[in-house]
Amino acid sequence: MHIDRISELTTVLQASISPVALISGVGLLLLSLTNRFGRLTDRARALHDRIHAGSAEDAAELEREVRILYRRSRILRASISLAAASILSASLLIAALFLAYLFDAPARDPVAMLFALSFFTLVASVVLFIEDVGLSLGALRLALGPHLAPGPPAPGAPRHEATAFIARPAPAEDPASRNRERV
Question: How far apart are CA 10 and CA 36, in angstroms?
Answer without folding.
Answer: 40
